[in-house]
Specification:
Low-confidence stretches: none
Strand order of the largest sheet: 1-10-4-7
Helix content: 25-40%
Distance between the termini: 58 Å
Number of strands: 10
Radius of gyration: 18 Å
Number of helices: 3
Strand content: 25-35%
Number of domains: 1
CATH topology: Jelly Rolls
CATH class: Mainly Beta
Largest sheet: 4 strands, antiparallel
């Protein structure tokens, strides 16, 4: 993966949508740009993970091992991000992330993010608001999936009991 910076500032996408241009320009200097090739593993399940990733171009698959097979968890593209939890609470990766095209990704470690917060508190607040909005949307979506799953299970149990 190469790491040259193609932008003077990070684009206002994903969790950076509400971050002002001057803060995105400064933030870009704390992380690095990576360019994984098609088929390259960006994150390997089970390995230590403490980075936040913002996908600028390309497509990636998030896959998790389930016994002898892999399960596709998500397909991610421009504006999507990953690593939001582990950047603040480092742990091992719960899934692998594999490039499915040539990609441009901006990556920042937890330490680099901390340095940005110390150097630009206003930009840090804007970035955290974006991450919190993203987390809230994901929690709402997971709640909706859980409710849907419970409704299907209840319906199944109803018909099973009446047999």
């Amino acid at each position: 993966m190469s790491s040259s910076s193609p932008f003077p500032e990070l684009p206002a996408v994903g969790f950076l949508t509400g971050v002002e241009s001057s803060h995105r320009e400064f933030l870009a200097s704390f992380g690095k740009f990576v360019r994984p090739k098609n088929g390259e593993t960006v994150i390997e399940e089970g390995t230590a993970q403490n980075c936040l990733y913002l996908i600028l171009t390309g497509m990636l698959h998030v896959v998790a091992a389930a016994g002898e097979r892999s399960i596709l968890i998500a397909t991610l593209g421009a504006g999507d991000s990953l690593g939001e939890v582990n950047v603040f609470d480092p742990a091992s990766a719960s899934a692998s992330v594999i490039a499915r095209s040539e990609c441009l990704i901006w990556r920042i470690t937890g330490d680099e993010l901390g340095a940005f917060f110390a150097a630009d508190s206003e930009g840090g607040v804007e970035l955290m608001q974006g991450l919190l909005r993203l987390s809230a949307r994901r929690i709402r979506a997971m709640n909706a999936k859980l409710v849907d799953s419970e409704e299907k299970a209840s319906f199944h149990d109803f018909w099973k009991a009446s047999e």
